[in-house]
Amino acid sequence: MFVLAVLRDTLKIVPSEFTKPREEALKDEINSKYANRVLHDIGLCMVVHDLLEIDEGYVQHSEGWIWVKVKFRLIIFRPFKDEVLVGRIRSASPEGIQVSMGFFDDIVISADQMPQGSEFNGTEGVWVWRYEGSEMFMDLDEQVRFQVLDSTFLDVNPPRPKIGDVDSVPASHPPPYSLVCTIAGDGLGLLTWW
Amino acid sequence: MEVLDRQEALVSNYEVLMVLQEEDQRHKKIKPKSHVKYPENVSTLKFEALQYLNGTACSTQSAAQIAALKSGLAGYDLTKAEVLQIINLRPKKPVELFLIIEECEERFGDAEIEEIMRVILTALPRDDDDDDDEEGGEEEGDEAQGEGEMDVDQDHS
């Protein structure tokens, strides 16, 4: 589920951070820059794991802060193909269900990846799996075990309001990182089934 | 920013939980003194990830337990990813093991699966094991067998 990535970056330590030990100030700076962000083709950044190398740092002319070059390891959420994970059902529609892991929401299980014999129940708004005569409902917020088929990265620009229309709300944009998953198979699906 | 290695190592949920908890402790300590507000993205992620991980098997694990599991499973031909998933998911029933281990039926016999399950249940004990045991065979797992031969290799960082 999680991997470590090695990165190098030049970071800024502002004067208010000078009172902290240098390492802590750097960790805080790395976290605030990377945490909860998706790096293209790498994954969702969690927090810094450890610092590997710290350069001396320098002050530029006319600036009051220090620039420091750091090499560090970052914890990345990047499940591998075929990995089995557990999450909760966030929403359901005729196209499939969306699963959330709390810190990561863009997990899609499309209609063709449902267990055989499942269909969307429009009145209840949930998916139902008919198995050997019994109906099993996939209610929202139920815990579900799923397997990763593929992950997609999308290079998205931040949403912008329309030109000339200051009040327009930017349209929702596609997620930069999403997982395509399946719950068809033995052991997959709601935890209560097995 | 420069990416030197996209994937240097795999880390278990337990290790991530430890890092997050450490961060959390550190912040609780400095927060009252500091006038600098803690960035929202960090606190959101930390809160959500801690909440998720505390709900999974890793919340009751310890480094010694994981080391014991690794040495217990060393005799079986499992890949790193498979062992990692066993640690993260802590299967309770063979059906979960079949899901984690690729081509499980061809690689392992029924007896071996049962032994692997026993290793998991002894090395990573959980309180809720007895709650919904339908599959037999788990009870013998309590004999704490092999406690002496668990060598400590904590190279999983």
From TrEMBL, chain A:
The keyword Nuclease does not apply. InterPro entries: NA-bd_OB-fold (IPR012340), RNA_pol_III_Rbc25 (IPR013238), RNA_pol_Rpb7-like_N_sf (IPR036898), Rpb7-like (IPR045113), Rpb7-like_N (IPR005576). It is found in: Nucleus. Residues 83-194 form the RNA polymerase III subunit Rpc25 domain. Residues 8-64 form the RNA polymerase Rpb7-like N-terminal domain. GO terms for biological process: transcription initiation at RNA polymerase III promoter. One of its GO terms (cellular component) is RNA polymerase III complex. Keywords: DNA-directed RNA polymerase, Nucleus, Transcription. Its main location: nucleus. Signal peptide: none annotated. Belongs to the eukaryotic RPB7/RPC8 RNA polymerase subunit family. This is DNA-directed RNA polymerase III complex subunit Rpc25. It comes from Coemansia spiralis.
UniProtKB/TrEMBL annotation, chain B:
Residues 127-157 have a biased composition (Acidic residues). GO terms for biological process: transcription initiation at RNA polymerase III promoter. SMART domains: RPOL4c. Keywords: DNA-directed RNA polymerase, Nucleus, Transcription. Residues 1-127 form the RNA polymerase Rpb4/RPC9 core domain. It comes from the Eukaryota. Residues 123-157 are annotated as: Disordered. SUPFAM superfamilies: HRDC-like. It is found in: Nucleus. InterPro entries: HRDC-like_sf, RNA_pol_Rpb4/RPC9_core, Rpb4/RPC9, Rpb4/RPC9_sf, RPC9. GO terms for molecular function: nucleotide binding. One of its GO terms (cellular component) is RNA polymerase III complex. Belongs to the eukaryotic RPC9 RNA polymerase subunit family. This is DNA-directed RNA polymerase III subunit RPC9. It comes from Coemansia spiralis.
